[in-house]
Amino acid sequence: MTTRPSKDLDTFPNPKPGRDFTIRIDVPEFTCLCPMTGQPDFATITIEYVPLDLCVELKALKLYMWTFREQGAFHEAVTNEILDDLVKAINPNFIRIRAEFNVRGGIYTTVIAEHRHPEWQIPSVVTLP
Fold first, then answer.
1. What percent helix, strand, coil does the chain show, rounded to 5?
2. Predicted structure pTM score
3. Which pLDDT band, with edges at 50, 70 and 90, does 104 fall under?
4. Which of 5, 32, 82, 117 could be stapled to 66 by a disulfide with Cβ–Cβ 3.0 to 4.6 Å?
5. Domains of the chain (ranges plus CATH)?
6. pLDDT tens-digit map of 9-40
7. 43-65 tens-digit pLDDT
8. How far apart (Å, rounded) are the C-alpha atoms in residues 89 and 6?
9. What dihedral do alpha carbons 125, 96, 120, 123 form, nearest 10°?
10. Could you give the CA distance from residue 8 to residue 110 in angstroms, rounded to a whole number?
């Protein structure tokens, strides 16, 4: 398997289709470049999704995230690009990308982008005693 950056997002079949469950992935070492200055921007990317038929393979996701290291992108744009690419690859019932960028010039930026499959019914909340 390659150890170079790659935009290929490999997938595997959902091991429990028909059951809603959440997969949460934290990427604490995300890096891209500021498109204005060329300086590095660092973030923690959190991906939460409810799979439909496919799940994303983690090594492929790691190599995908690596591709942004040399890419200039505004925080809002890169967050939405990641969302769009994952939706295209796995077509989940629901997915949320949360990008928490480290401080830059005294300002923290957090961008949250979501996608919901149009046919997915949100499960009711269970309140335990």
1. 20, 40, 40
2. 0.94
3. confident
4. 5
5. 11-116 (3.30.1130.10)
6. 999 999 999 999 999 999 999 999 999 999 99
7. 999 999 999 999 999 999 999 99
8. 14
9. -10
10. 26
